[in-house]
Design a protein that fits this description.
Layout (H helix, E strand, L loop, with lengths): L17 H8 L5 E5 L6 H14 L4 E5 H6 L9 H20 L3 E5 L5 H9 L6 E6 L3 H7 L4 H6 L21 E3 L5 H11 L6
Helix pairs in contact: 2-8, 4-5
């Protein structure tokens, strides 16, 4: 459903545009959408990139999958329908961050191509950067930082991406990265690739 349930609503327009905010901050606002399996390194990479951006005077903020499920999306589980709603809500939050002039970094498994494409579709052209954290399942499972793969293999966690639920890799991400290389190298590659200049 693309239309709001409420009918008696009208969009409010402020006096400061998104372009005004970008000029104020001195950089473009983009959504950097990290997608990959659990344990692939999405959050680690997003938080390291956030730190590097802040050090360079760029307004940035990480939206992490687990953190969001403690608050905004605490009413959602991991069924395909709930996953889709989880990503839809986050996409809308990212669009708001973009309008605010901020670089927003997301770390969500976001296993379905269609859901990620819907998020891309609500962003202005060129402001959505999909980063595929391309870490093989066996590496993610060997890392298993949260002990989730062991639980999924034991049948304790249903609908677990890559084990008992699908993960659909991006067919054409803006950037794919292998987190087996040093973290600082990953961050350096992303800093060079991100379209943040106003020029």
């Amino acid at each position: 459903m693309n239309e709001p349930v409420s009918r008696n609503i009208v969009r409010a327009e402020g006096r400061v545009s998104g372009a005004d905010r970008q000029t104020h901050f001195g950089h473009r606002s983009v959504t950097v959408w990290f997608t990959g399996l659990s344990g692939s390194g999405k959050s680690t990479l997003a938080f390291a990139l956030e730190e590097a951006l802040i050090e360079r005077g760029i307004a940035a903020y990480v939206l992490d999958g687990d953190n969001i499920r403690f608050g905004l999306n605490r009413d959602l589980g991991f069924s395909p329908e709930d996953r889709a709603e989880n990503i839809r809500r986050i996409g809308e939050v990212c669009r708001l961050f973009g309008d605010a002039g901020i670089v927003v970094l997301t770390a969500f498994i976001s296993p379905y191509v269609a859901d990620r494409d819907q998020v891309r579709a609500i962003h202005p052209e060129g402001t959505f950067v999909e980063v595929y954290v391309d870490t093989p399942l066996e590496v993610c499972e060997a890392r298993d930082p949260k002990g989730l793969y062991a639980k999924a293999r034991a049948g304790e966690i249903p609908d677990f991406s890559g084990i008992s639920a699908p993960y659909e890799p991006p067919p054409s991400p803006e950037f794919a990265i292998d987190t087996s290389q040093p973290l600082e190298d990953c961050v350096a590659q992303l800093l060079e690739a991100l379209p943040l200049s106003l020029a």
